[in-house]
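Changelog note: in this version the structure field was regenerated for every chain. One regenerated record is shown below for reference.
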Amino acid sequence: MNAHPSYIDTIEPIVLYDELAEFLGAVDGGMYSVEYFEIVKMAGHSCATVAGAWLMAAHGLGALYGDEPPRRGEIRVELKHGVQERHSGVVGMVFTNITGATRDDGFGGIPGGRFDRTGLLHYNAPIETDVRFTRLDTKKSVGVNYRPERIVDPMQILKSAIKPDATEEDKATFAHRFQQMVATVFERQNEVIEVVL
């Protein structure tokens, strides 16, 4: 049950504070961690896109909050591309799971307007970076770019297993090779992530 590639267990969780979770008694003190494997289960897979979204969130929130825990539900998330472009919808779902930010389909808050998480996730944003995270309390923003093509080529690996002349070995080794590619993204994350302050 839940057998998965070993690299997944080496990824540092993202630790956050969620005032809503504390207010409703779901988490004592409101502090909890989000594990990468939780995001894998949400997405149904681990790929360069899911890994990149995780890394953009981890690096972006780290730069935005420094030594403080990021405050879930209090972060505006803007993506440069439309929801149907460049897997942005998948990326946005990862950001929602980590930050709590949603468009119009998330938690609308309690009476009085507290804890409203709607209107915090935006696609087709007029920004220069792939994504921009903004703290609602200080208005400080951080932009992040993800450039996996510098070190990996997911489509080349995928095509090797589905091309008409793919060998049985190509097919049998595909999943392992694909996950090794994702592991490489994490191992060499400083080569593919750019944080713009």
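Spot check on this record: The mean pLDDT is 95. The longest helix spans residues 168-187.
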